[in-house]
From TrEMBL:
The keyword DNA-binding appears for this protein: yes
Residue ranges annotated for the HTH gntR-type domain, each copy included: 18-85
Source species, domain of life: Bacteria
Protein name: GntR family transcriptional regulator
Keywords: DNA-binding, Transcription, Transcription regulation
Annotated PROSITE patterns: HTH_GNTR
InterPro entries given in the database record: GntR_C, TF_FadR/GntR_C, Tscrpt_reg_HTH_GntR, WH-like_DNA-bd_sf, WH_DNA-bd_sf
Length: 230
């Protein structure tokens, strides 16, 4: 008997469910690190599933992931509750990102080609246009594309992969929605490109580190002003 034309193979269904759970985890992770979900807040399976337009299963799997990351805790008979996020946690997250980024930056100076530098110029132009248009999604995509190209030029694929996963704990939407940050990001990228052209290792490393120290400061200030740590 033939399967219905619309039926999906088990492997494809499992892959789609895994993608959904990752997307839900990313959404909740951003909500926690940006202070939208405060410590002590209970995350309801049915409410979260309904708000995201998914079934309960990927939400349950996402919460299991976040439990492993120490972002939520399961309280018997009550559900998953958001754990405290301290200023020290923010500092640790960005310290790790900056440490990896500096290694990649130093390697990028050694390996990047003139063609790759010109590609960064084009990507930075894309970011500038997105910032001017106040298109948050386009800003997110352009910023990601710029740093992916820069990190890949270092030819240290595993290290770039570690940085990609470390940046999951950065609420990128907070920055992308800020036009002041957007303009400064474009200017910062321009300086980085010029330092790469000059093969100035110290300057490139310093500029790479600045991105994360600036990100930590902005997020810390935002959370303080929101009363997160009152």
């Amino acid at each position: 008997m033939n399967a219905p034309a619309h039926a999906q193979p088990p492997a494809r269904r499992a892959l789609r469910r895994e993608q959904l759970s990752e997307e839900v985890a990313a959404h909740l992770r951003t909500a926690i690190t940006s202070g939208q979900l405060r410590p002590g807040t209970f995350i309801r399976l049915d409410e979260t599933a309904a708000s995201l337009g998914v079934s309960i299963t990927p939400v349950r799997e996402a919460l299991l992931t976040l439990r492993g990351e120490g972002m939520v805790q399961l309280e018997p008979h009550r559900g998953h509750v958001v754990l405290p996020l301290s200023q020290g946690d923010i500092e640790d997250i960005f310290w790790l990102q900056a440490t990896i980024a500096k290694e990649l930056a130093a390697s990028a100076v050694e390996h990047i080609t003139d063609e790759q530098i010109e590609a960064l110029v084009a990507l930075n132009d894309d970011l500038a246009r997105a910032v001017d248009a106040a298109d948050v999604d386009a800003v997110l995509n352009a910023e990601f594309a710029f740093h992916r190209a820069f990190n890949r030029s270092a030819e240290r694929i595993k290290l770039a992969w570690f940085l990609l996963h470390a940046t999951r704990y950065t609420p990128s939407l907070v920055y992308a929605a800020d036009p002041v940050w957007g303009a400064e990001a474009v200017a910062h990228h321009t300086k980085l490109i010029e330092a790469l052209r000059e093969r100035a290792v110290d300057a490139v490393v310093e500029l790479a580190e600045w991105q994360f120290t600036d990100g930590a400061r902005r997020l810390t200030d935002m959370l303080k002003n929101s009363g997160m740590w009152d």
